[in-house]
Fold these 2 entries.
Entry 1:
Amino acid sequence: MSSPTAPIASQSDPIRDVVRFERVGLRYGRGPEILSDVNMRLAHGSFTFLTGPSGAGKSTLLKLCYMALKQSRGLINLFEKDISVMSRTEEQATKRKIGVVLQDFRLIDHLSVFENVALPLRVSGENRADYTQDIVELLHWVGLDHRMNAMPQTLSGGEQQRAAIARAVIAKPDLLIADEPTGNVDPAIGRRLLRLFSEMNRMGTTVIIATHDVSLIREMQADILRIEKGRLLSGLNDEAHL
Amino acid sequence: MSQSPENTSAQPLLSAKIDNARSLIIVLAIMAFLATLALLFSLSVDRLRKNWQGELGRSATVQIMVDSPEVRDAQLETALQVLKKTQPNATFAPLSEARSQALLRPWLGNLDLPEDLPLPVLISVSLADGEILSVSRMSAALGEEGLIAEVDDHSRWSDQIGRSAQGLKAAALALLALIFGAGIAVSTFATRAALSAQRDVIRVLVQVGAEDGFIAKLFIKQAGLRGLKGGVIGVIFGFIIALALSLRRNTETTLLPDLSLNISDGLYLIILVVGFACVCALAAGITTFRILRRERRRA
């Protein structure tokens, strides 16, 4: 097992680090540290599972990765840029390279499934005619092609999750961050979604997935990070972490 | 079965349902209505001032103090000759003795005036278009002929009318500015409420990488359209009321000027509507940028 203070997600020769944490700590106000001395590297093109018990800090760690939170100390580099010195424009440009699947989906209620999925492309200024077919195909892939005009509140939890996943991947992000992406879907759909992530990873997207689903982890040849009580432990395909 | 997207154009990213659009448009329409009346009143006052001053500026009154009633006609004749030389294009109309006496009635009542009362000779001067009145030249020329004369070019009245009209115009414009200020306040308040109500949408937009400008544009567009709708409704109602007032205006002289409309007012009303929409949009944009920056600092 690697040192708990210096876990490394992938030790293969990286083209570049998509994510790099150095002695990162996070606390809210004057409270205790929720994350302590987190050292982590996600190499370009890596596929990583983040595991750990509930409340260990998985979602918080991912929030730091997609800049929803700012660290209290330490260094975070995304795409080899220190996020603490990024301008607002650089920050948002970096976010456009990241696809995020959250546990609460965050679909916009007054937009159809199609429009929710199109959101990252609209924000990037893409032409609607250029992306319509891509969205139709992606929705077909995630099994939502028959619900593309439905409003989110009429979807089941699993359908909402798939819509959120489609939104996260439609812009072909360089980094895909998913927090329990298969939590609400049946095993068959779960495997299908995993294939989608795997396919994206094969095309160069760096993927990190927080999950409790051991069967999901066992299906993939992927790096594993384990977090416990706000501290990161690591290993490569280490069954002991599961 | 596979579907295709229902809408060929993108759905609006901001929800219209939580925008309270209808009540806001009513408030903005009322403000635009008041702004329309203030603007038309200001334009009307300005037109009236120009007309009054134009008429006064083209006329004058020459008063000649006659030595005795016997020489009245001779002095009048001399004065007319002198005046025609100094203002060759002007028209001179001497007032009859009876008319001069009538002018004294408001002060002296209907008394029979003594025949030897030396009433001054009054000559009304009407200038031709473009002709400039020279009071000093007239006075000097009359003086050279030994006539005791006073030339009144009505500048005292004209200046007073001008000042009064400028005051009314300034008040109307101040009212207009106040209404625009209220429009800014309403738009700012509405944008704050909309930003709060659409917090979840903004959070998602920020997460997918939307710049502040992208988000601000959504609120600018929403507020601008709201301002435009309210502006058009208010201006139409304001114009109808102003038209009705101008059609039944009093023909007698009154203290306050009547509303009168002109074709060029239409251009000002278009500018008012566009300006109103722009002000609403601008306020929304500034508010959005400010709040997004503040939220970021808090995070």
Entry 2:
Amino acid sequence: MLQRIRNAPTRYGLVVVVIILLLGLPTVISSFQAGEWAQALILAIAIMGLNILVGYSGQLSLGHGAFMALGAYTSAILAHRYKVDYLLTIPIAGLLTGIAGFLFGVPALRLSALYLALATFALAVVTPSLIKRPVGLTNGVQGIILLPPDPPQLAKDAFTIVTGRAMTSDQWTYYVTLAFAFVLFWLAWNLVRHRAGRAMRAIRDGEVAAAASGVNIAGYKTLAFGISALYAGIAGSLYGMSTGFVNPDTFPFSLSIQLLVGAVIGGLASIPGPLIGGIFAYFLPIYSNQWVPTQTWIPSQIASAVEKAGPAVTYGALLIVIMIFAPNGIVGLITGSYARLRRRLRGAVDRESGQAPPESQTA
Amino acid sequence: MQEFMQQVVSGIAIGGIFASLALALVLIYNAMGLVNFAQGEMAMMATFIAFTLIDRGVSYWIAFPATLLIAFAGGVAIQRVVIRPVERAPVLTLVIVTLGLAALVNGMAGFIYGYLPRAFPSPFPVVTVNVLGVFVSYRDLGVIAVSGVVLLAIYLLLQRTTIGLTMRAAAHHPEASRLLGVNVSWMLALGWGLASAVGAVSGIMAAPILFLEPNMMQTVIIYAFAAAVLGGVDSPLGAVIGGLIVGVTVNLAGAYIPFVGGDLQLAVALAIIITVLVLKPNGLFGRPSVRRV
Amino acid sequence: MAALLEMESVHAGYGPRSVLHGISINVAQGGIVSLLGANGAGKTTTLRAITAGVRWSGDIRFSGRSLRRMRTEDIVRAGIAHVPEGRGILTELTVDENLKLGAHLRSDSAEVRRDYDRVFEYFPVLKERRKLSASTLSGGEQQMLAVARALLMRPRLMLLDEPSLGLAPIVVRSIFEIIRTINQADHVAILLVEQNARLALDISSDAYVLEVGSVAVSGASADLKGNDSVRRSYLGY
């Protein structure tokens, strides 16, 4: 049975199930909730980009919110000032941000892990201030307001046929986001499976060895930065579409942290991880303290205190607990349990052959 | 010239605040190779505790050391309960844990005390004093004096006492220290306690200026990062000197460069970080050596 | 009388790989025992097992007390000093600080001062370089520091891992003489891991030869020295 789960056909099956679920979701939830899920998917896209950088090529970034901001503002300025069709602005924003990321990756090569983290951290913190300055371009503190996108007639008709209701702009946004998510996740999956992905992982696991094997370290590291920025740029652009406005405070430092947390919680160096991470990163901070009062086994004083304390407390506590018990993220937890199970089965075989592995001993 | 000297002295005073928090960061970095993103929030919480004590009538100069003791105990407790279970995990996991801790502490402070800024007393009256022909703020001198005393005390503790020696040994060479009978795990806990107490000093000195509220330390910690990086993130001396340089630079920039307002002072700090990182990645006093066992 | 250190059917390994396959070794009170064998035979692993640097199964008893589940620092506090392969010098600290760490668990300050005097008598170079960083010492001097530091711990059993490694013959000779003195004057038992079998057999009373994680030959050092075939097959000379 375990053999079967590890086999590709079953994994493909799971993927198909997830795709179908995601496609059908707006038909069974409210428009507002569809908007929320769109934002979760947006975060998932940005997290996928971050994952390529952190999980697959081993470079840490605490500033991916800055790339999201770049993407969002690019789209907003193109759409608002130059009247470009919004959907068209999304890939443009992604490309621009990707190039910016690639350029950022060049000096980043000189920094060790900790200092790269600090440099990107600095970037994230200073982003709101940087956005405010060129008032002519960015409208400064006021930000740019975007008209909510009107779904094209074809989509509206299709939606009404399936659900019998009119399609709202939130739902349209959801589907646009989902489409980009499918494409980007598929691209990422291909990337990690082929040469570029292998090169990046070799770099992550040991630069000296990778260089000795002839891997172009500088090239792949900057490529990773560029690609991950591209993802974040598209996510930012979609974010603008989803919320209808952008301003300097939309992309604070805490967003970069949220992305990193989502990446780690979901599971680094995995393809499904960012999806889980995006869902987690969006929904948990908002709803974490609302789950507790619904549990009747928790005494009411504790429950009401937790509820009043606000989401930050439960969110923080959950982060700590998850890292203690599932340091490889949720995907790691699932694959880890399989590995442990297999090892225990193999252990039984060893006992049969007469060779006992050393007992556990505190070392 | 007068005004310049005043600004320099003010800068040194603020620098003392940054230096204390930077020292806390460096202590933990030395012990664990980890930047504790919750250091600022822990300092803020300690300051709230000091506030509560003073509010209930405890005199400032008793509340101050009492808070440091409580902060110390709190730091030890956090290391035992939250950090130790993930001690051997990769650094990224630990980073997330400190981020969670920061959110937790910040939320708790908000919950217990609310988000309204409060005035925090300073024992130093806001008068100017004539020192060597320059009129400086008495409060600035006070902050410099207190920071100086605390930093000196830490220095003496680490360099001149046996327990400081075992703490340093445990931080730099954990495996070899165990073979000398050093209880490395408890040394780490003490390190956290010490860092927490030093950070508390930073908070208590900052509160009269910034007004006490849960998000008070969030800009201070960024300046402290700048200071630690500038000085070399594994050098306690570097943290102190870095703090002073950052304090003076930021203050002078704010006073003399026209468009540098409140939020851009922060950008100045970050420009420092980035410049140093590009020119001298290990900071002024840092060492490029890998941690040895 | 029970031996000071008793290892009984000890298996040990790193992860799934087992290095020791059931070895049994005894060290008598105040005795010197050498552990010989080729590279990879498991000599270092044996010492590490004693101070809980590696997972092991079986039994290890020190003064009759089982060391199972004890942490390294507690085992050391019980009276075992372990000078590891690579010497374990704390290079971020000074020579003096390294020595202080040797003595830091002791409360008998007068005795400590006497021991310091003795240590400086054995190794005058350490006294000269007291205030310098330990990283400035040469290999031989670091070995001296490691032994001096272990001495300051006043252990009942000293584990020495390859004390001659990488050192000039003159230095090696003086270190081994000091080891002999420590053993005779202070009654410190010694378990010595050495590649240089001749030196080791000269100084020790008993020896064990390890081969691929098991004890191939054991006995009194004099016997092993005199046994031609043992010497040729296991000790290489």
